[in-house]
Design brief:
The chain has a six-stranded antiparallel beta sheet. It is built from four helices and nine strands. It is 20% helix and 37% strand. The chain has helices at residues 25-31, 78-81, 85-88, 113-121; strands at 2-5, 10-15, 18-23, 34-38, 45-46, 51-57, 61-65, 70-75, 97-101. The termini are far apart. The protein is an alpha+beta fold. The protein has a single domain, classed as OB fold (Dihydrolipoamide Acetyltransferase, E2P), CATH 2.40.50. It is globular. InterPro entries: 2-oxoA_DH_lipoyl-BS, Biotin_lipoyl, GCV_H, GCV_H/Fam206, GCV_H_sub, Single_hybrid_motif.
Amino acid sequence: MSRYFTEDHEWVDVEGDTGTVGISEFAQGQLGDIVFVDVPEAGKALTKGGDAAVVESVKAASDVYAPVSGTVTEGNPALADNPALVNEDAEGQGWFFKLTLSDPSELSSLMDETAYAAFVAKQ
């Protein structure tokens, strides 16, 4: 499995042609206590960089963008009852949705973990 990051602080874990998407630990820290997450429904087609989900915290509401294009196969049902799961484990159990990648070549424009760490250090 490989993990990639966007400059908007989303991550995507890729295994085969399936991607699991969430927001980074840095992003959840910037948002503060998360109180609501709206994830896309299965079957929704997403375009890289397009709106995919919404996350609301005590500080702000933010759009979550699709790091790659594809079709959603599953939204994380646990976030409806426990949006704070994103604060507790942003890069694990707090994932937002899974999708089937339609163009794996889009991954080449994303950052790996080392590049993302350097990017965050400049924030």
